[in-house]
Amino acid sequence: MKAMRECDFGEDSPERDMAWFEVDGIRMMMKIDYFDTDFEWGSEDPANAAETRRVITIMRPGDY
Predict the structure, then answer these.
(1) Which residue, among 54, 63, 56, has the nearest Cα to 26 in the 3D structure?
(2) DSSP string spanning 42-62?
(3) Cβ 56 vs Cβ 32: under 8 Å
(4) How far is the C-alpha of 29 from the C-alpha of 42, rounded, in Å?
(5) 64 pLDDT band (50/70/90 cuts)?
(6) What is the largest CA-CA distance in the chain?
(7) Which among 33, 34, 32 has a CA at the least distance from the CA of 50?
(8) pTM of the full structure
(9) Sign of the CA dihedral 42, 5, 59, 8?
(10) What distance lies between CA 26 and its chain's CA centroid?
(11) 36 closest CA partner among 17, 24, 49
């Protein structure tokens, strides 16, 4: 979690929903998805916290 919190978003990632970092020499990635409040569909307005639930997925890039 510490490595993910300290990761930097690349300049080529303007939406800031994906980043890469290392844990014990293993390259990892994190992806943020924005769902409606029922977690069924994508959020209509991801910037609106009242109608958006964010989910962070952490994985190895090869699993994406």
Answers:
(1) 63
(2) B-S-TT-TTS-EEEEEEE-GG
(3) yes
(4) 21
(5) confident
(6) 38
(7) 34
(8) 0.74
(9) positive
(10) 18
(11) 49
Instruction: Tell me the pLDDT tens digit for each residue of 10-57.
Output: 677 666 788 888 999 999 998 899 999 999 999 999 999 999 999 999
Contact 27, 42 (CB under 8 A): no
- Pair 21, 3: CB distance under 8 Å: yes
Q: How far is CA 32 from CA 7, 29, 54, 56, in A?
A: 14, 10, 7, 5
State how far the Cα of 15 lies from the Cα of 9, in Å rounded to an integer.
Answer: 9
Contact between 21 and 30 (Cβ < 8 Å): yes
Total residues belonging to the chain? 64
